[in-house]
TrEMBL record:
It comes from Halanaerobium saccharolyticum. Residues 1-21 form the signal peptide. InterPro entries: ABC_choline_sub-bd, ABC_Gly_betaine_transp_sub-bd. This is Glycine betaine/proline transport system substrate-binding protein. The keyword ATP-binding does not apply. One of its GO terms (molecular function) is choline binding. Residues 31-282 form the ABC-type glycine betaine transport system substrate-binding domain. GO terms for biological process: choline transport. Pfam families: OpuAC. Keywords: Signal. GO terms for cellular component: ATP-binding cassette (ABC) transporter complex; periplasmic space. The keyword rRNA-binding does not apply.
């Protein structure tokens, strides 16, 4: 009896000191987060930002660059956990293959304001070219040309099909295929001289920082619906790491934010990790929304941990 009382007393004392209290174990099995990314500027820098937040929370991170096909396969095999660049409908074929298997899923849209469409400088838009249907009214001013990027690109094919089918009365127009850099050089020359130019533009991209541009309406729908970018996780990851999964559920950016990331990383040729660190330090209000209710790996409040790191 005395022995039982002694044990009972000891348990009460230990509980009083909190020794047996529940300690938050955020990543009990493995605190490494495996990110996959395609080497598109926007996806690359976005992945670095998310990975840096994860590191500040105490996780180890690994980033693997690969094609979309390899990324989806690696999510299936468990070699990757997260992919932040699922452009739909562009990547629909590969995504559907693995979604139907029940091995991956979209967590949420992380970027809504995505556009790939014919664009013009703002001064051309204000002069009356607000729609693809307006282009041929001013054919001479445009030199009957629409500038595109690399041959075989989806956008080039869309414009060439419009020319071949006389959509928007473009049958006498030509597609000037080039490269992204070549096309933007042409836009720069036109803007410098206040000349008229129509080109295949998209956002997020640093062209939206370099130039004041407008995207034309497309009443015939040749460009299809504007895409969205989703966060993808392998099935089962939510149960394995519910803490970081909550971050994924709350991680979303705007096109202006990503435009600036891309401008710093690609246009200014800066280290993406440095860009991520600087942006996080200067935008804790946004980061706090991403990590609301998310803890560090040692169980502390995530936003306080991140603030301590960036302010030291």
């Amino acid at each position: 009896m005395n022995k039982i009382k002694l044990i009972s007393t000891l348990l009460i004392v230990l509980l009083g000191f909190g020794i047996f209290a529940a300690v938050p174990q955020v990543a009990a099995q493995d605190d490494t987060i495996n990110f996959g990314y395609v080497q598109w500027p926007g996806v690359t820098i976005k992945t670095h930002v998310a990975a840096k937040v994860a590191e500040y929370l105490g996780y180890k991170t690994k980033m693997t660059a690969a094609s979309e096909a390899i990324i989806f396969k690696s999510l299936e095999t468990g070699d990757l956990d997260v992919f932040l660049g699922n452009w739909l409908p562009t990547m629909q074929m590969h995504f559907n293959e693995y979604q139907k298997k029940g091995v991956i899923h979209n967590v949420r849209v992380n970027l809504h304001d995505v556009v790939y469409r014919t664009a013009v400088p703002e001064y051309v838009y204000e002069a009356g070219v607000k729609s693809m249907a307006d282009l041929n009214k001013y054919a001479d001013k445009f030199g009957r040309k629409i500038y595109g990027i690399e041959p075989g690109n989806d956008g080039n094919i869309i414009i060439q099909d419009a020319i071949d089918n006389n959509t928007y009365n473009l049958s006498e127009w030509t597609l000037q295929a080039s490269s992204t850099a070549g096309m933007l050089s042409s836009v720069q020359r036109a803007v410098n001289n206040k000349e008229w130019i129509a080109f295949n533009g998209w956002k997020p991209h640093y062209m939206n920082v370099m130039f004041d541009i407008k995207y034309l309406k497309d009443p015939e729908g040749i460009w299809g619906e504007d895409p969205s970018v989703y966060t993808v996780a392998r099935n089962g990851y939510q149960d394995e790491n519910p803490n970081f999964y909550k971050f994924l559920e709350q991680f979303t950016v705007t096109a202006p934010i990503q435009n600036n990331w891309i401008n710093e990383y690609q246009n200014k040729d800066r280290d993406p990790e440095v860009v991520a660190e600087e942006w996080i330090a200067n935008n804790l209000d946004v980061v706090n929304q991403w990590v609301f209710g998310v803890n560090s790996t040692d169980g502390r409040m995530g936003r306080k941990v991140i603030a301590e790191i960036v302010n030291n």
